[in-house]
Amino acid sequence: MSQQSHTQQAIPHFVHGARTGADAARTSDVFDPSTGQVQARVALASPEEVTAAVDSAAEAFRTWSAMNPQRRGRVLLTWVDLINANAGELAETLSREHGKTFEDAKGDIQRGVEVVEFAAGAPHLLKGEFSTSAGTGIDVHSLRQPLGVVAGITPFNFPAMIPLWKAGIALAAGNTFVLKPSERDPSVPVRLAELALEAGLPAGALNVVHGDKAAVDALIDDPRVKAVGFVGSTPIAQSIYEHAARRGKRAQCFGGAKNHAVIMPDADLEMAADALIGAAFGSAGERCMAISVAVPVGEETADRLVALLRERMASLTVGPSLDPSSDFGPVVSAQAKERIESLIQAGVDEGAELVVDGRGVVVEGHEGGFYVGATLFDRVRKDMRIHAEEIFGPVLCVVRAKDYEEALSLPSDHEYGNGVAIFTRDGDTARDFTTRVECGMVGVNVPIPVPIAYYTFGGWKASGFGDLNQHGTDGLKFYTKTKTVTTRWPSGPRQGGAAASEGASFVMPAGS
Ligand code: NAD
User: Fold this and answer.
1) Distance between Cα 154 and ligand 1 center (Å)
2) Which residues lie with the beta carbon below 6 Å from any ligand 1 atom?
3) What is the pLDDT of residue 7?
């Protein structure tokens, strides 16, 4: 963060349908991780600017919530069309600020768009329940109503997907939204909000404010913000969850991860090795669903798996994010690179076997970039830091398990419980694993089991705070409140005339 005076305009907020704050005094540098150079600055919102965004969202709520859900759905579908039409430009910007490859950036956008498409079915998704004759002459129905102004605070690693997951569902339900995206790759969220305006969203229904803790605190403290959806690291997720709870608002806060893949002796090992390479090193391991621990069962499985991984890793290319020959790009910042490399050293110091060392990679012509090569550790023990902590880089740890029960216990007993996978040909083993493992999202021969839009996404234990998941039906529940209406009409002669009085009743009404 910097308090500097610059002549160059900063990446602005997007409030009430316009770019604002480009001349901000407080800004943060935005790097190109491929070169290591500062490519822009982003404005950091003051509490007053956050209040202005909430003012605008509160005003827009009146019109947007009153629009019928089918019309809201049409606006969302037009938004989808515009995002798709601009996907190339968005992906390039995303790739340049984040460091993931262009193709991967397109996937980031696509997985977000799929949730907006799902949310466009709002008329169906918001249907309430109805029960006739719950008592004599009594009907009961329930309504799902929007909350009002809601907020999303999102991480650097999916700057399109996660804002779209949150805003898409919240808007479909009739809420208005204030997004506080990551200050490290802020351009795509602003562009998405501009496209939403172009699609017909009223000004103020989707505002974007950049910032740090000051902006986040101002959002949570504003009594008009009714719900807070957060995704990021676990310590921040927990503190935001507690802060929001103290303010009496609903919150869902998703945190870090350490995702294991168990490889049974009967697995197709070639398939498992290919899957692990993509899941561990894709996006430089900066995915909350990346596989960071492989758990082969039995020494023979482990020896064969490590050999296959080592062979495949020899041909991996780390390079500039927009170079089509790069399998994966740099990590997001110099601090991230330093932290990853220091954790690799911790693994060496604690006695793990460093099979492939990704430190010290130099990419010609991009010597200042934040590159870490693919790294493989074998014979990692569960008490080592490289197993206990989230590394969030291209580092795969092999923890050898003597049997299935030991393999099952590793993800189940871990602090985090986001994703997990098992590779096997045996249905009974897979069924036992999916039933007993203590993680929120499970893959069977699928390394990154990110649920599709109409299912829900969420981890367990330290990977998620709150009781509802993201997108799918849980997303709708999170961004709506239920009202239950019990109705009784006076019964009597159909053509006027009074019903016979039954007198007052003093007992608790019951269903039977
Ligand atoms: P982060 O926690 O540093 O930041 C997330 C958001 O919180 C950003 O918008 C940031 O500006 C804001 N923030 C940072 N410090 C804050 C503070 N002190 N008070 C208030 N707000 C603050 O996370 P990140 O580095 O951007 O993202 C990587 C992390 O996110 C990893 O741990 C990854 O596992 C996790 N993640 C989890 C999921 C999931 O669904 N569980 C998905 C994606 C990423």
Assistant:
1) 6
2) 153-158, 180, 182-183, 212-213, 216, 231-233, 236, 254-257, 288, 390, 392, 418, 459, 463
3) 55
Residue with tokens 């006076």: 490
Same topology, domains 2-255+463-482 and 259-460? Answer is: no
Q: Check if CATH label 3.40.605.10 holds for domain 2-255+463-482.
A: yes
The residue whose C-alpha atom lies closest to atom 40 belonging to ligand 1 is 254
To test the ligand 1 pocket, which listed residue (31, 239, 283, 288) has its Cβ within 8 A of the most ligand atoms? 288
**pTM for the whole thing?**
0.96
- Domain boundary assignment for the chain: 2-255+463-482, 259-460
Mean predicted confidence (pLDDT) in 148-156: 98
Q: Which residue has the tokens 């880089």?
A: 393
Q: How far apart are CA 275 and CA 422, in angstroms?
A: 11
Domain 259-460, second-level architecture: 3-Layer(aba) Sandwich (3.40)
- In whole angstroms, what is the distance from residue 408 CA to residue 292 CA? 16
Q: How far apart, in whole angstroms, are the C-alpha atoms of residue 45 and residue 50?
A: 6
Q: Please give the span between the terminal C-alpha atoms of the chain, in angstroms, as a whole number.
A: 64
**Confidence grade of residue 178 (pLDDT, cut at 50, 70, 90):** very high
Reduced to 3 states, what is the DSSP secondary structure of residue 7? coil
Instruction: Give burial (CB, 10 Å; 0-12/13-18/19+) of 335.
Output: exposed
User: Which residues are catalytic, by number?
Assistant: 288
